[in-house]
C-alpha cells in the first residue's frame, strides 16, 4: 500500500470508529426494543419487520427475505471488489425473564437470554455506518440477519440454501460473551465451537410389582447403568487430548412407588470437534446399548440426530479479526482461551466461505455474579454493543480493502 492510500485508510478507520461511538444511543434503543419484544426461533415475524424497516432508512441498500424470517441487506461499495458477509442471529429463547430492568421482556415464556438482541442491533448500526462511508470502500457487503440459531436445523442452513453466500469471499460473525468483561475480544484459531448432536434412547424391559423384581426387567436400574457406561466413552475410549462431552440431560421412567416401569427414556447431547470421533460415537453408543440390554433381557431403540457442524475459524480471516481487536483495544484485550463445546450454526456460512467467529466481551466489569447465557437473569453490559460495531467496521474494512 502506498502512503496516500495508507493515509486514506487511517482516516476512514478513524471516521468509522467515531461514527460507532456516535450511534450508541440508537444502538441501545434498538437493542432494548428487541429485548422487550423477543420472538422464538422460526417465529421472528415482528423482528423481521423491525429489521426491514430500520434497514429501509439506509440509502442504497437492497433488502431481501430469502428464507424463513431472515432479512438480508446488500450494500454495494464505490467500486468493484470482494464480497463480504456479516452475520447476526435474531432469535430469543423459551425462558421467562427474571431481570427487573424497565426494558425487560414483555412476553412470558420468551426472552433474549443469549444476547441475539444485541447482535441484531449491532448489525443494523454497522450497516448504517458502512452506508455513510460508502464512497470509501470497494466491493459489496451482505448483512445477514439470521432467524433461528437456537433451534436445529437452524436458519443458517436455510439461508445458505437460498444462495445468500453465493460469491461471498469472506464471512464474519460475533457473539456477545458474558463470560469475559466488556472491552475484551476473544479470538480463537481453528476449532472454536463443537458439533452438538442429540440422542434419544428408549429402554424396553418388563414392568411389574416393585416387590417382585425377579419377575420384571427393571428399566430404571438398567438405564442407570447405561448412563454410567456412556461416560466411559469419554474417559476410557477417547484420546484425552481430543474433546468429547456426553451428557444425559433427561431421564424419564415410572409412575408410582410400587410399580417397576417397563420403559425408561434417556435424552442427551454429544459434543465433538473431531469428525472421525463424531462418526464413531453413535456406533459405540449402540454397542453399549446392545451389550447391556442383551445381558439384562431388555430391548432398546436409539435415535441419533446430527446437529450443526463445528465452528472452525479460517486462519487468514481470523488474523484480520485479531489485528482489528489489537488496533482497537490493545494486545492485552485479546483472549485466546474461549474455545468451548457450545454449538453455533455460524458454521453453515463457514462451509461456503472462509470465516471468522469471535466473541465480544459483554460481562459487566467487576460484577460479582455473572448469570450464564440462557439463564432467566442473563444480562449484558450494553457498552459492549459499540465494541461489536467497531469490530465489524474495522475488520470489515480491512477485509474489503486488503483481502486476506
Ligand atoms: Ni447465542
Defining traits:
404 residues; alpha/beta; Aminopeptidase; Alpha-Beta Plaits; 8-stranded mixed sheet; 10 helices; binds nickel (II) ion
Concise summary:
This protein has two domains: 14-193 and 310-401, Zn peptidases (Aminopeptidase, 3-Layer(aba) Sandwich), CATH 3.40.630; 195-305, 2-Layer Sandwich (Alpha-Beta Plaits).
Question: How is this structure best described in words?
Answer:
- The chain has helices at residues 3-22, 24-36, 45-56, 116-132, 155-161, 219-235, 275-295, 315-329, 347-350, 384-402, and strands at 62-64, 71-76, 83-89, 140-146, 170-181, 185-186, 190-193, 195-204, 208-209, 244-253, 259-260, 263-272, 299-305, 311-313, 334-335, 355-363.
- The relative contact order is 0.19.
- The chain is built from ten helices and 16 strands.
- Strand 1 (62-64) and strand 2 (71-76) form a beta hairpin.
- The structure holds nickel (II) ion.
Class of secondary structure makeup: alpha/beta
Let me know the number of strands. Answer: 16
In CATH, the topology of the largest domain is named: Aminopeptidase
| Order of the strands making up the biggest sheet | 1-2-4-3-5-16-6-15
Report the radius of gyration as a whole number of Å: 24 Å
Q: How far is the first residue's CA from the last residue's CA?
A: 14 Å
Q: State the helical fraction.
A: 25-40%
Amino acid at each position: 500500500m502506498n502512503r496516500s492510500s495508507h493515509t486514506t485508510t487511517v482516516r476512514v478507520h478513524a471516521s468509522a470508529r467515531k461514527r460507532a461511538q456516535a450511534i450508541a444511543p440508537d444502538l441501545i434503543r434498538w437493542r432494548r426494543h428487541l429485548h422487550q419484544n423477543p420472538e422464538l426461533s422460526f417465529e421472528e415475524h415482528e423482528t423481521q419487520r423491525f429489521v426491514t424497516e430500520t434497514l429501509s432508512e439506509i440509502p442504497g441498500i437492497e433488502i431481501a427475505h430469502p428464507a424463513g424470517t431472515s432479512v438480508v441487506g446488500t450494500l454495494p461499495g464505490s467500486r468493484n471488489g470482494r464480497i463480504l458477509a456479516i452475520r447476526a442471529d435474531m432469535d430469543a429463547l423459551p425462558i421467562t425473564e427474571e431481570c427487573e430492568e424497565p426494558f425487560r421482556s414483555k412476553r412470558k415464556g420468551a426472552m433474549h437470554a443469549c444476547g441475539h438482541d444485541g447482535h441484531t442491533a449491532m448489525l443494523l448500526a454497522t450497516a448504517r455506518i458502512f452506508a455513510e462511508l460508502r464512497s470509501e470502500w470497494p466491493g459489496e457487503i451482505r448483512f445477514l440477519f439470521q432467524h433461528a440459531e437456537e433451534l436445529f436445523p437452524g436458519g443458517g442452513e436455510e439461508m445458505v440454501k437460498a444462495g445468500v453466500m453465493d460469491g461471498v469471499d469472506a464471512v464474519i460473525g460475533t457473539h456477545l460473551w458474558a463470560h469475559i468483561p466488556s472491552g475484551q475480544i476473544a479470538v480463537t484459531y481453528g476449532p472454536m465451537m463443537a458439533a452438538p448432536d442429540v440422542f434419544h434412547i428408549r429402554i424396553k424391559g418388563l414392568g411389574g410389582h416393585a416387590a417382585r423384581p425377579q419377575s420384571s426387567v427393571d428399566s430404571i436400574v438398567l438405564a442407570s447403568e447405561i448412563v454410567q457406561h456412556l461416560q466411559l466413552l469419554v474417559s476410557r475410549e477417547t484420546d484425552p487430548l481430543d474433546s468429547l462431552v456426553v451428557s444425559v440431560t433427561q431421564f424419564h421412567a415410572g409412575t408410582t412407588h410400587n410399580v417397576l416401569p417397563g420403559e425408561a427414556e434417556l435424552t442427551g447431547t454429544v459434543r465433538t470437534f473431531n469428525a472421525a470421533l463424531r462418526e464413531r460415537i453413535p456406533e459405540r453408543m449402540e454397542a453399549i446399548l446392545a451389550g447391556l440390554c442383551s445381558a439384562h433381557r431388555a430391548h432398546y431403540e436409539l435415535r441419533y440426530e446430527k446437529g450443526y457442524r463445528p465452528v472452525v475459524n479460517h486462519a487468514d480471516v481470523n488474523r484480520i479479526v485479531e489485528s482489528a481487536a489489537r488496533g482497537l483495544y490493545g494486545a492485552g484485550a485479546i483472549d485466546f482461551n474461549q474455545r468451548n463445546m457450545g454449538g453455533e450454526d455460524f458454521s453453515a456460512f463457514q462451509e461456503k466461505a472462509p470465516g471468522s467467529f469471535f466473541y465480544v466481551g459483554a460481562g459487566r466489569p467487576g460484577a460479582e455474579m455473572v448469570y450464564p447465557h440462557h439463564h432467566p437473569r442473563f444480562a449484558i453490559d450494553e457498552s459492549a454493543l459499540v465494541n461489536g460495531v467497531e469490530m465489524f467496521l474495522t475488520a470489515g474494512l480491512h477485509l474489503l480493502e486488503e483481502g486476506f
